[in-house]
Amino acid sequence: MRIAAPIEIGPLDADAQQAVRDLAKAAEAYDGVAPLSEQPLLNLGTDAEWITHVVAHTKAGSTIGYAQIDRSGETASAELVVHPDHRRDGRGRMLLKTAERDATLPSRSGEPGQHGKQLRVWAHGDLGSARGFARASGLRPVRELLFLARPLAQARPLAPVDAPGLPEAPPGYRLRTFRPGADDAAWLRINARAFATHPEQGRMTLDDLRARQAEPWFDPEGFFLLVPEDAAGTAEGTADGDPVAFQWTKTEPGQPDDARDGEIYALGVDPDHQGMGLGRLMTDVGLAHLARTGATRAVLYVEGDNTPALATYERAGFTRAAVHVQYARP
User: Fold this and answer.
1) Is residue 104 domain-shared with residue 192, that is, in the same domain?
2) Structural domain range at position 70
3) Are 182 and 75 part of one and the same domain?
4) 166 known ligand binder
5) Does the annotation place 28 within a ligand binding site?
6) Is 137 in contact with 121 (CB distance < 8 Å)?
7) Same structural domain for residues 118 and 152?
8) Helices 206-213 and 184-194, interaxial angle, to 10°?
9) pLDDT digits (tens, 9 = 90+) for 189-231
10) In terms of domains, do 64 and 169 share one?
11) Where is acetyl-CoA 2 annotated to bind (predicted)?
12) Residue 274 known to bind ligand
């Protein structure tokens, strides 16, 4: 019989990656919420200086716990999961302590992705068990990410989502869909500008974009750009022809027809064009597109302290469905 180390740190081979995915599915089935968000799942195959994978095993080698520490930002971010059958036996504390050591060890070079950073830990769904674990570990909430939802059958006074077409662009602008390859650089520029203060979205790279384009849910027909009308037909984005706003939708395949979520995955407005109602326009574009593709509910994530975005989404009929909390030591 193989006797596995209780904790292993290092890159994950294909089998180890699948074992983590299976672990996450088991935890989601038990808790009702996914323990790992999209980016950590995309990072499972990443072997780089800024990321650490920590796996907890049984003596027989079964994967029963996992932690991923991402040190690419100003602070280190971690996501942890323990199998429901192996909780309350110290493995969660062991994963947390390992993550804290990994994040806070003194950095020798000071380069991005190195150690010596404060650790923040995500708790998805804000479950009572996670709150108790955080309190017992001396962690306190430092950030909220809200999960909002609205039924797509709900009436809209200005732009009904069951209309056959999309809302019209304002004079001087044109709405078109994203062209993979041709629009990558232009979209990365506006995304960085629109999310300059966001700890994750604003740091998206070309590799991150390409990884999402390779996912089965990606559909450029659900990715909309608002561009200056005289630049809408150019082959490549230019400084004058870059989008001024965008709406990226996401619908996971395999959902039942009568309960299909469509996500407003990312919505951004260039700071120089804010205050013109473009956020509401692009929200309506996303809702109309999701409705015509058969989604029955629209969902999205928004920062709990993003007052302007919350006001836009509340006017569009969204209400809070869940909350995800990030914890850190005081």
Assistant:
1) no
2) 7-138
3) no
4) no
5) no
6) no
7) no
8) 110
9) 999 999 988 888 888 999 999 999 999 999 999 999 999 987 5
10) no
11) 267-269, 274-280
12) yes
- Mutual orientation of helices 278-292 and 307-315 as an angle, nearest 10°? 50
Give 162-219 as a DSSP string. Answer: TSSSPPPPPTTEEEEE--TTTSHHHHHHHHHHHTTT-TTGGG--HHHHHHHHTSTT--
* 138, 164, 193 - which closes a domain: 138
Instruction: Kindly indicate the confidence band of residue 140, based on its pLDDT and cuts at 50, 70 and 90.
Output: very high
125 is annotated as contributing to ligand binding: no
pLDDT (0 to 100) of residue 182: 95
The response to whether 279 counts as a known ligand-binding position is yes
| 154 and 107 belong to one structural domain | no
Out of 138, 167, 194, a domain closes at 138
pLDDT above 90 covers a percentage of the chain that reads 73
Question: At residue 2, does pLDDT exceed 70?
Answer: no
Q: Express each pLDDT in 78-100 by its tens digit.
A: 999 999 999 988 999 999 999 99
User: Is 1 annotated as contributing to ligand binding?
Assistant: no
277 known ligand binder: yes
Residue 263 assigned as binding residue: yes
Read off the CATH number of the domain in which 271 is found: 3.40.630.30
Domain count across the chain: 2
